[in-house]
Write a structure and sequence with these properties.
By secondary structure, this protein is mainly alpha-helical. The chain has 5 helices and no strands.
Length: 140
């Protein structure tokens, strides 16, 4: 059994991060941009822009690398392929999207409609990103 191919994890992770960044842009700008800005203004929070966007983009690429690393780590146990990638995507979505989204809604930081749309969007986006990243991964 060979070890994790870190180079392929990074390549696959960057692909996964790109998928998620494109998805997040589509969701948060053309689809929900005005509604999200209005929700932030209603809570006296600043609009998302500039440096915050840079942080989010960078974090999403790092998240993609972690996603593919997890795929590579469980691949020997669950087997290579799309089923494992989607499984990892759903587990990561639950841990990284669902919980924080519910928390932001419960604390009044995000309206229920936006929270629900974001959670469902992520449930599609993260497994798709995991599939794309896993497709780029192979053992050494």
């Amino acid at each position: 059994m060979s070890g994790i191919n870190i180079g392929r994890v990074v390549v696959g992770g960057l692909v996964a991060g790109l998928v998620m960044n494109v998805g997040e842009y589509i969701l948060n700008e053309p689809l929900l941009g005005a509604e999200l800005t209005a929700a932030l203004e209603a809570r006296n929070l600043p609009a998302v822009g500039g440096g915050a966007i840079g942080v989010f983009v960078t974090m999403t690429f790092a998240f993609g690398i972690l996603l593919v690393w997890l795929y590579a780590a469980v691949r020997p146990r669950l087997g290579p392929g799309p089923k494992t990638a989607v499984t990892i995507g759903v587990v990561v979505w639950f841990l990284a999207y669902f919980g924080p989204t519910v928390a932001m809604n419960v604390m009044g930081m995000l309206p229920g409609r936006l929270a629900m749309i974001g959670a469902v969007w992520g449930l599609v986006e993260v497994p798709l990103a995991a599939l794309a990243g896993a497709w780029m991964y192979h053992e050494a």
